[in-house]
Amino acid sequence: MNQRDKLWWRHGIFYQIYPRSFQDTNADGVGDLRGIIGRLPYLQSLGVDAIWLSPIFPSPMADFGYDIADYTGVDALFGTMADFEALANAAHAGGLRVILDLVPNHTSDQHPWFVESRGSRDNPKRDWYIWRDPAADGGPPGNWLSEFGGSAWQYDATTGQYYYHAFLAQQPDLNWRNPAVRRAIYDVMRFWLGKGVDGFRVDVIWHLIKDAAFRDNPPNPDYREGRPPHERILPLNSTDQAEVHEVIAEMRRVIDEFDSRVLIGEIYLPLERLVAYYGKDLAGTHLPFNFALLSAPWNARGIEKIIFEYEAALPQGAWPNWVLGNHDRPRVASRVGRAQARVAAMLLLSLRGTPTLYYGDEIGMHQVAIAPEQVRDPFEKNVPGIGVGRDGCRTPMQWDATPYAGFSTSTPWLPLADDFRHENVANLDADAASILSLYRALIGLRKKLPPLVSGDYVPIVAEGDLLLYRRESGETTVVIALNLGAEPVSIKSDAAGLSGEILLSTFLDRQGEKIQGALDLRGDEGVMIGTSLVP
Ligand code: GLC
């Protein structure tokens, strides 16, 4: 295998599939693995290189699969192990890698390990989870809060102790200080890697190790009313402990037992803490997800600051990555607006680092309003009314204009967006100026022009709504000019130092236009320019 193949995750583009919502083939209103198989040609034609599947394992679905009851099976809702193998084979045959979600921080409370653990104080699995005596007053053993509301400690009457759950009470945390737990999860990894899976996206990896003494978390002086209640305290003792890096290095060694696999970490931390997850000597995660754009202020200075600080914080040799959306955060088209979603696409696909696309963003899917009786997300159910619900970004993929958008032949588990009759793959494919056509063009250019993958990032201008930078490797340079606002912007060449030819406009109509001395951007327009630098 040559070096380029080994490092496929550097030059490739990832695409996240939320399996419940991608394609249903058995008319139960929930997507399945056979559905994904049927849509592989779409993904190939889009030009992505790897798909990451949110959890497909047997689960009571309290948190829609992030509560796993069997790490080495496939939930019947999604299909069978044979279906998974068929999916992996078909994907690989079509040049697509397959990444699975690994959820090692917690299991379902229905997992046999936890059933045994909670059964008595002296069973062999007791120490696989985190059990503590009640406080003197009988209350929880500390002040740690669940991310989904309320105390993170759940009293269990059978044995008179509390167990810790960073998320739902149905998601008890495993005790990662116990070597037996580590071995068990490493065997789970080997099971899937042995089946040819190309790597894992590791769920809440920064949560794995907690303070050994379970010291209380300090209050958050910046807490604002209307924010989720767990933000009242700072999770300094419950997450991001130094020892987590030993665990991740072990996981990485398991990954490295196999050829060219990738380890991605889900980490919501400030940039300076995030980059520690590359590990000592880069022996941690290959790609600690960089979520900075999910909450970026949408102006040139704000975005440039994020890019600059991230680039500066990266350890020597570490490979960057960028994310615009996922199954936990509001859709980008709703965050930045429909017109800017195209500019955001150009940003994502022209930055230095592996991009991860979230299904549906390529057709501009927006956040869908969910009526109270349609809420499925446990976060919204536990903490209602402040906008934390994640259902709106998990609605069914919009394939065509048929009654259920080509997603299913019966009522989907979540409502469809009201505009699906127009905003769907079939329609947008037929429209040479659509956002889908833009995504195809951007992905095509990224594949064709090496500077877009491996070139340096060089900031040029960040002012008002104008963000201008270039990607350069050797003699070849691509200049990217993004107008982050709705008003036109003009650039003078002496500020930018460029001349060349437009390779792509987000409106898909200026290809080949010569640029000499000045560039006019329409409102909400981004362009890429193939250029020679004027000395
Ligand atoms: C991660 C997942 C999220 C899930 C949580 C608990 O943040 O992305 O969907 O609810 O972990 O497993």
Top keywords for this entry?
about 525 residues; alpha/beta; TIM Barrel; Oligo-1,6-glucosidase, domain 2; Immunoglobulin-like; 3 domains; eight-stranded parallel β-sheet; six-stranded antiparallel β-sheet; 17 helices; about 25% helix; about 15% strand; binds alpha-D-glucopyranose
The fourth-level CATH homologous superfamily of the largest domain is Glycosidases
- The share of residues in helices is 25-40%
When the domains are counted, the total is 3
Described by the principal axes of the CA atoms, the overall outline is globular
**Average pLDDT score:** 96
Structural class: alpha/beta
Q: Name the beta content range.
A: 15-25%
| The level-1 CATH class of the largest domain | Alpha Beta
CATH architecture of the largest domain: Alpha-Beta Barrel
What's the main sheet like?
8 strands, parallel
Instruction: Return residue spans where pLDDT drops below 50 for at least 5 consecutive residues.
Output: none
Distance between the termini: 41 Å
Total helices: the number is 17
Please give a structural write-up.
With 535 residues, the chain is α/β, with parallel strands linked by helices. It is globular. The chain folds into 3 domains: 368 residues, Glycosidases (TIM Barrel, Alpha-Beta Barrel), CATH 3.20.20.80; 53 residues, Alpha-Beta Complex (Oligo-1,6-glucosidase, domain 2), CATH 3.90.400; 76 residues, Golgi alpha-mannosidase II (Immunoglobulin-like), CATH 2.60.40.1180. Helix content is 26%, strand content 17%. It contains 17 helices and 19 strands. Strand 13 and strand 14 form a beta hairpin. The strands form 4 sheets. It has an 8-stranded parallel β-sheet. Strands 12-13-14-19-16-17 form a 6-stranded antiparallel β-sheet. A 3-stranded antiparallel β-sheet has the order 4-6-5, with no helix packed on it. The protein binds alpha-D-glucopyranose. Alpha-D-glucopyranose binds next to loops.
